[in-house]
Specification:
The complex is a heterodimer of chains A (311) and B (535). Chain A has 311 residues and is an all-alpha fold. In chain A, 76% of the residues lie in helices and 0% in strands. Chain A is built from 13 helices and no strands.
């Protein structure tokens, strides 16, 4: 197992390096810079001398190869650089945003799994029934509804009309503030999980070994629990892994709508003012999150299905 | 006539609303205690708690609550006034000011001294630190040399004693215009600089209680604040919410106490009596305009620039697109400026005159240009799209060059544009902001249209050297009117900033510099506030 983990960690390095290089070169060639973004508010706040001094301070007047070398060599020492915007180390800027992002991604996935998997399962056990049709209509709607609109709808109903939950904001250790953004973010993966589970269960139910088990007189509850569920879990887990892995990056709209201080909203703010060190740091966090989650999913495969070996 | 009427109506309405709001705020006796949840839509998040490191409006909101500067802006008189000094004496030549400092205390308990003032301004101008707020102290004698690295410190700053500081300026104009800036606060010289962003130590009415980056800043009353009995509030939460719809829900739900409104919400709030009676409105010192680059041959001709001003029905755009959340612009200086000429009228909508001027200039049907624009609903791409058919009717073809904020500034600095649409600061200091059209002001500073007119320069130079305030104002008024005639830009509108305020909130002021930046020490809430605010 340890060998597998080590191998996967080593495999991450070229992926991370490639992402870092791509981001670096994209922002080296796109027009606009941090300094010019300072003028965008139209407040005549910076004169040419100050701009030149800032340019030198941040090393923005260095040639691209020098900047790349500085960045990569810093990265090798776990130094992500200094944020142009806040003038603090990038790690200090990213740190406080990480837990809210993780919290939101986990809460959204918990909601998605808690609702989507049972729905898909029950729909598959009664194929063609009214329940099945309703579940699939819900799933398709969940996949197609814009998150922004859904978020507003949730705010309107649960905050403004019913007064049950706060409409926005983040408060440490407050589940009430987490509920609405988590549902808004979790509806799409919930719908996908419901569809995937249903398809997986239907597929397994038609498999030879299930027919054989039924012929041998295995009861339906035992058949579902011991044979179908276990075989469907690999597919469900794969879907969950991919979804939770990408939720951190996908949460941008929801974070903005609910004023949630996650990595996604930080990334958008940093891109708009070309705070490149923070953009690189935020992308790195999102990529790492995705890679680590997928590694954990691979490990989980082995625990669920002994035929899969990770050693 | 329509322009004349609408401007007169706008001015009357603005004055009436401002007066009514002030009167309402003063009607009751302030009550101490409680919490205010103040929300603004600017930027994505608070950038830094050290205001000297950032030039953004959202950071000013927090800075104003925690820090104090030598001067402050009086929103009622529309003038800068002494803040951290009890008195000031001006030398005979009008350039040297001797300040007697207040007995003020920093949040960490240290007393304000002359050394703090000298340290703060030297720090701001330090070329090694490259702080954006350096702009504010450049009129102090020796600041330019210090910034250029040819001096060790700013020579125009001198300590007389612990409570007295002398500041020498490079000209005779009121130093308050720049030294009132929230970007030029007074910091303690003994406080560790590396803690300014995490544990700020100011002289303001509130001190930091908790900061959740990206979410909110929680402030609490500073008991050692120099104004006795203030601040009234015990706590002040400052948050940013970019999404207008989300802000609207939170405001209607009573979760937030103020809501800065955009055009769509402004129309909706005016339509609801309960919300309409608690709107705070002010003509902010921002002028929305389309700047003409004289590298386009046609724009060198004043008649062409004037023709464009005549050809666009700005009243229609203000009414239909901006839902009356703007005042049609007359010239550069906004209506709240002391040098705004209340008798001057905007260019009327007169397409025939526009056609005649274009024909006279030789551009009857062969002028085309692109307007570089950001996606802003009040002064961006939608406005360019609205003027395209209007200008087409007089034979001018316009296209849009859409860009984001950073690229926009890049193109302006590189002189890579034909025309741009923007919202620019045009106050409060009329001399400073008219200087953006002085021929000696570089394009990279703020003369984006490279305007050059010797008569205009002479008027501004004369105004800059005029010690008498009234005479100076008269000269600036003349210069502003000349600018209107020269039409280096299409004068579109002055921003009408609007804030929805909960009925239990009092003491907010129609601040024309920036409505969202308030004198928080004067704000209080009454008994009708929800329990969550009274705790």
């Amino acid at each position: 197992m340890m060998g597998f983990v080590l191998r996967r960690v080593l495999q991450m390095i070229p992926t991370i390096l490639a992402v870092v290089l791509i981001i670096f070169f994209i922002f080296s060639v796109v027009p606009g810079s941090f300094l010019t973004s300072l003028m965008a508010e139209g407040r005549n706040m910076t004169n040419a001398d100050v701009l030149a001094q800032m340019n030198a301070q941040f090393g923005l007047d260095d040639p691209i190869p020098v900047r790349l070398w500085n960045y990569v060599s810093g990265l090798l020492q776990f130094d992500l650089g200094i944020s142009y915007r806040t003038r603090e180390p990038v790690t200090s800027v990213l740190g406080p945003r990480l837990w809210p992002s993780v919290q939101l991604a986990i809460a959204a996935m918990t909601f998605a799994a808690a609702v989507g998997i049972p729905l898909g399962f029950m729909a598959a056990l009664r194929p063609g029934s009214l329940f099945d049709s309703l579940t699939m209509v819900t799933a398709v709607s969940g996949l197609s509804v814009p998150e922004f609109w859904l978020g507003l709808l949730l705010m309107y109903v649960f905050a403004l009309q019913l007064g049950w939950l706060p409409s926005f904001g983040y408060q440490e250790n407050s589940l009430r503030h987490l509920v609405l953004p988590a549902i808004a973010l979790g509806v799409s993966p919930m719908a996908l999980l419901a569809r995937t589970t249903r398809a997986g269960v239907l597929d397994v139910m038609n498999a030879d070994f299930v027919r054989t088990a039924r012929a041998k007189g295995v009861s339906e509850p035992r058949l579902v629990r011991a044979h179908i569920t276990r075989n469907v879990l690999v597919l469900v887990l794969t879907t969950m892994g991919l979804q939770i892995g990408s939720l951190m990056g996908q949460a941008i709209v929801i974070e903005k709508l609910f004023s949630w201080p996650g990595i996604g909203s930080l990334l958008v703010d940093s891109v708009s003012v070309r705070d490149i060190p923070v953009v690189q740091g935020a992308v790195l966090v999102i990529v790492l999150w995705f890679l680590v989650i997928n590694m954990l999913v691979d490990i989980a495969y082995a625990l669920i299905d002994p035929r899969i070996k990770v050693a | 006539m329509l322009n004349r009427l609408s401007l007169a109506a706008a001015l009357t309405l603005a004055t009436a609303l401002a007066s009514a709001t002030s009167a309402l705020a003063q009607a009751d006796t302030p009550q101490p205690g409680g919490k205010l949840v103040f929300v603004a839509p600017y930027g994505g998040s608070i950038t830094s708690l050290d205001i000297t490191a950032t030039p953004h409006a959202q950071d000013e909101i927090v800075a104003k609550a925690m820090n104090a500067s030598l001067y402050s802006w009086n929103a009622d008189t529309n003038q800068p006034e002494l803040e951290l000094a009890e008195s000031v004496e001006k030398s005979a030549d009008g350039k040297t000011y001797t300040y007697k400092l207040r007995d003020a205390t920093f949040h960490n308990g240290a007393k304000l001294t002359a050394d703090d003032v000298i340290y703060s301004y030297n720090r701001l101008g330090d070329p090694k630190r490259a702080l954006p707020g350096a702009e504010q102290i450049l009129r102090i004698a020796g600041a330019a040399e210090y910034q250029a690295g040819t001096a060790d410190s700013i020579s125009g700053l001198k300590k007389i004693d612990d409570r007295t500081v002398e500041i020498t300026m490079t000209d005779i104009n009121d130093p308050g215009w720049q030294l009132m800036s929230n970007f030029a606060p007074i910091y303690s010289k003994d406080y560790p600089e590396d803690q300014l962003a995490s544990k700020p130590n100011g002289l303001g009415p509130f001190k930091l209680a908790n900061y959740v980056p990206g979410a909110k800043v929680e402030l609490e009353k500073f008991d050692g604040y120099y104004e006795e009995g203030k601040p009234y509030l015990d706590r002040l939460d400052i948050m940013l919410m970019e999404e207008a719809a989300a802000r609207d829900v939170a405001f209607r739900n009573g979760e937030i106490d103020v809501n800065v409104l955009g055009p769509t919400q402004y129309a909706a709030y005016r339509a609801e009596p309960a919300l309409a009676e608690n709107l705070l409105e002010v003509a902010e010192v921002y002028t929305r305009n389309i700047g003409f680059n004289p590298k386009v041959e046609a724009f060198k001709d004043k008649r062409v620039r004037q023709a464009i001003n005549y050809a666009i029905d700005k009243d229609l755009i203000v009414t239909k697109l901006l839902k009356d959340k703007a005042y049609p612009a007359v010239s550069w200086l906004p209506v709240s400026s002391p040098a705004f000429d209340k008798d001057a009228r905007p260019y009327p909508f007169d397409p025939e005159k526009a056609k005649a001027l274009l024909a006279e200039a030789g551009y009857a049907d062969n002028l085309s240009f692109s307007v570089t624009a950001q996606p802003n609903e009040s002064w961006g791409i939608p406005i360019v799209e609205a003027i395209i058919p209007m200008l087409a009717r007089v034979g001018v073809t316009v296209t849009t060059d859409p860009v984001d904020g950073s690229v926009f500034s890049d193109k302006l600095l590189a002189d890579d544009f034909q025309a741009y649409i923007w919202s620019n600061s045009s106050g409060p200091d009329p001399l400073h902001y008219l200087r953006c059209f002085h021929s000696k002001t570089p394009q990279s500073a703020c003369n984006y249209v490279k305007f050059s007119n010797p008569e205009f320069d002479a008027l501004l130079d004369q105004a800059g050297a005029e010690p008498d305030h009234d005479k100076q104002t008269a000269l600036l008024k003349q210069a502003n009117n000349m600018l209107q005639d020269e039409a280096p830009v299409w004068f579109f509108n002055y921003n009408k900033a609007v804030m929805g305020v909960q009925p239990w909130v009092h003491g907010l002021k129609p601040n024309s510099v920036e409505l969202a930046i308030q004198d928080y020490q004067d704000v209080w809430i009454d008994d009708t506030a929800p329990a969550s605010r009274r705790q």
